[in-house]
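Minutes, project check-in
Item: structure for the 212-residue chain
Input as provided by the requester:
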Amino acid sequence: MIRRIIKINEKKCNGCGACATACHEGAIRMVNGKAKLIRDDYCDGLGDCLPACPADAISFEEREAAAYDEHAVKRHLEKQPTKTANRNSVSSSQLSQWPVQIKLLPTKAPYFQNAHILIAADCTAYAYANFHQDFIKGRTVLIGCPKLDMVDYSEKLTEIFRENDIADVTVTRMQVPCCGGMEYAVKTAVQASGKEIPVEVCIISPDGNILN
C-alpha cells in the first residue's frame, strides 16, 4: 500500500540517537552510528521522531510500505530489555531536553529562551551524587569535555548566548586543570556575546564535594 512514512537522510544524521528515543514504537535503531528505520510496519507515520532530530535528517515521504502493525509493534516492544533506571527507587531524571552535548546542540532552540543554563563538564555528574536534583532540575543542560573533544567551545557558546535570551548560566567543573577550559570558554563566550549574563561557577572535587 502507498502511505506516509518517515525517511532518514543518513548524510545529515549526526548519530545522536534522539529520534530512536522519541520513537514510541521502536521503529528506529542506531546502526553503525546512524539512525535506521528497521521495519516499515513498526512506523505509524505520525512522526514523533521529527521534532526530536537536531540535524533535520528526518522527513515524511509517500511510498509503497507495509501497513502499520500495532500487534507486531507490541510484540517487538515486549522483547526489548526492561529499563532498570528506578530499580533502587532512584529519583526520576530531571533532564528536560535532548541532545545535551555541546557539539550536537543547535545554536537556537525553544528550550534556550529565558532559560537557566547549566554547562557541565562531563565528569561532574558522576562525581556529585545528587547532580540531577541540585543542578539539572529546572535548567537547560549542555555538557562537554574540552580535553576529550579537543575543541574550544567558546565560539558555539557565543552563538547560543547571542541568539537566545538567557536568564543565567551555572558552570559545574571538576577540581582539575583541564576543566578550566570549560570555565574559560563560558566566560569568553558571555563577553563575546555582548550581553550581561550572570555566571556562577561551581567546582567539584573527585570525592564529590562542592569546593566553593
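Outcome recorded: The chain has two domains: 2-78, 110-204.
No further action items on this chain.
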